[in-house]
């Protein structure tokens, strides 16, 4: 019975590692650079990215700082926190220290109104074909 739990923990480690690698590649930061920015060893970060180690919340916070993303985003990916309705943008608004509570609420209200508007528009729009018809096919 421990096998499924062990596999789930291993999958979480692999998922967070893949997410960190994607974020690092998107930011065009080398493994060595991120390790230095996060204050962790190069081999340890490599093990995290390969899913061999599951980082603590503190290490995730350091990695997030190095990647210049919210720690909450990493916590959600690692399964430490549940994602709020509204996703990463709502999380960023809620955790922004430079905003007052009133400003946060106004931004969340505006964001939610845009989401509702877009969802309603999606329901009204006719379904688009998955692939456009090919007009220039090579001859074989």
TrEMBL record:
Annotated organism of origin: Saccharothrix xinjiangensis
UniProt protein name: Helix-turn-helix domain-containing protein
Keywords: DNA-binding
Keyword Transport: no
SMART domains, A to Z: HTH_XRE
HTH cro/C1-type domain span: 20-74
Biased composition (Low complexity): 126-140
The keyword DNA-binding appears for this protein: yes
SUPFAM superfamilies: lambda repressor-like DNA-binding domains (SSF47413)
UniProt xrefs under Pfam families: HTH_3
PROSITE patterns: HTH_CROC1
Residue numbers spanned by region Disordered: 118-140
């Amino acid at each position: 019975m421990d096998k499924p739990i062990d596999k789930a923990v291993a999958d979480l480690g692999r998922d967070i590692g893949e997410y960190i690698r994607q974020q690092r590649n998107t930011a065009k930061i080398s493994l060595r650079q991120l390790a230095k920015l996060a204050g962790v060893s190069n081999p340890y970060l490599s093990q995290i990215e390969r899913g061999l180690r599951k980082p603590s919340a503190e290490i995730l916070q350091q990695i997030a700082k190095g990647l210049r993303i919210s720690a909450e985003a990493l916590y959600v990916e690692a399964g430490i926190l549940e994602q709020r309705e509204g996703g990463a943008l709502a999380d960023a608004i809620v955790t922004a220290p430079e905003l007052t509570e009133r400003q946060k609420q106004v931004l969340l209200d505006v964001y939610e109104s845009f989401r509702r508007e877009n969802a309603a528009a999606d329901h009204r729009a006719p379904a688009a074909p998955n692939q456009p018809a090919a007009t220039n096919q090579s001859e074989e």
